[in-house]
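Deliverable D2.4 — example input (structure tokens):
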């Protein structure tokens, strides 16, 4: 029996719906990606001087005389309607409204128009930061400031959201491209250095009441600095860090004027006290010897992502505070300092993991007390006089 020849799929053109309504009937170059295996063709941009994407076709006055390759898409106008052909085949048209289509599945949970105003500073663009950034892009966050001084290496690939073609690139640049693969309208600024070198001018321009700063570098000093920036600009701060082999993770959040800050817990004096405690958390940063092991990067991707997801959900809650239609998932339920357990086998995480009664447990019981004289969020000590500070009686 003769084998049936596989029927070729009709060519499909995905294109921005705005082209249909373009004034004076647009003519010019189409940029995007063509997939011969499916015969689907994705117009991502049109009518630009330059595009990040290759030319894939044209819209012309008369398709019969168009001088293009047989694999190119040729658009032409007929009685005010835009039609596409590939070779002599008519194409199926699939117009898209970029923002509406990308975020249609978030509808009813996250308000896209509101999320697009939101801005995130991602401090550290490794396994944690790359995941946080892409999740926030998927949630509709419209602007990013990416901070990291490192390039992507082969040993990053098993945990990073970027891939093989990004090895050797600065992580901030590789990640920018991935963010814009989800939403090309996102504005991404990059800073190829550590947070402490970001200028005040940059923060002044980027920080608005819609901004959040997220410490993703698993670095206590960097987090203390991020916390200071958050306090200065009155924006929320979230830090995500890990215990050995990501057996557990820590998610801290600071909501200015509402909760104690990171410095209240981990600032110099409090931190010094904490390092004396056997029950201290975050084991590999607790002593000088342990600090030297800070280059040891623990954990497999799935454990990192599990803890980081808790951080991302908290970030979404913080970004949507006061939004009438938004239902917070975690804010108000978690304490400012939350531990998330991945594995409570002491053989993996040390004896500290025994504080969890079962794996995948999220603690809600750790109290963080505001330090009234915290050098970041506290009120400065009054001059040493004997004048009592008025406390005021409750009515
Ligand atoms: Zn404080």
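Example output (designed residues):
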């Amino acid at each position: 029996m003769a084998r049936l020849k596989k029927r070729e799929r009709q060519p499909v053109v995905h294109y921005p719906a705005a082209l249909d309504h373009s004034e004076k009937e647009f003519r010019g170059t189409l940029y995007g990606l063509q997939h011969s295996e499916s015969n689907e063709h994705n117009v991502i941009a049109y009518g630009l001087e330059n595009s990040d994407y290759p030319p894939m076709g044209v819209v012309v006055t008369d398709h019969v005389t168009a001088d293009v390759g047989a694999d190119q898409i040729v658009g032409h106008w007929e009685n005010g309607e835009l039609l596409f052909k590939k070779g002599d085949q008519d194409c199926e048209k699939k117009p898209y409204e970029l923002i509406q289509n990308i975020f249609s599945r978030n509808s009813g949970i996250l308000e896209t128009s509101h999320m697009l105003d939101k801005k995130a500073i991602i401090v550290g663009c490794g396994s944690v930061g790359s995941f946080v950034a892409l999740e926030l892009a998927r949630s509709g966050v419209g602007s990013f400031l990416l901070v990291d001084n490192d390039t992507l290496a082969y040993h990053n690939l098993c945990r990073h959201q970027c891939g093989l073609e990004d090895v050797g690139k600065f992580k901030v640049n590789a990640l920018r491209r991935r963010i814009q693969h989800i939403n090309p309208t996102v504005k991404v600024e990059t800073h190829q250095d550590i947070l402490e070198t970001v200028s005040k001018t940059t923060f002044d321009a980027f920080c608005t009441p819609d901004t959040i700063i997220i410490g993703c570098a698993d670095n206590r000093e960097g987090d203390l600095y991020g916390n200071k920036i958050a306090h200065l600009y009155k924006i929320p701060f979230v830090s995500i860090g890990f215990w050995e082999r990501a057996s557990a993770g820590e998610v801290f959040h600071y909501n200015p004027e509402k909760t104690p800050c990171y410095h209240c817990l981990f600032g110099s004096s409090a931190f010094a006290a904490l390092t004396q405690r056997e029950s201290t958390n975050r084991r590999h940063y607790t002593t000088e010897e342990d600090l030297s092991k800070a280059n040891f990067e623990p954990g497999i991707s799935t454990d990192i992502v599990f803890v980081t997801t808790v951080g991302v959900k908290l970030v979404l809650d913080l970004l949507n505070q006061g939004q009438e239609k938004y239902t917070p998932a975690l804010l108000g339920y978690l304490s400012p300092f939350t531990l998330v357990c991945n594995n409570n086998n002491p053989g993996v995480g040390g004896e500290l993991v025994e504080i969890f009664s079962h794996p995948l447990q999220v603690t809600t019981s750790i109290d963080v007390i505001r330090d009234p004289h915290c050098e970041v969020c506290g009120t400065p000590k009054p001059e040493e006089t004997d004048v009592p500070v008025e406390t005021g009686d409750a009515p």
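The chain has two domains: 12-96, 104-355.
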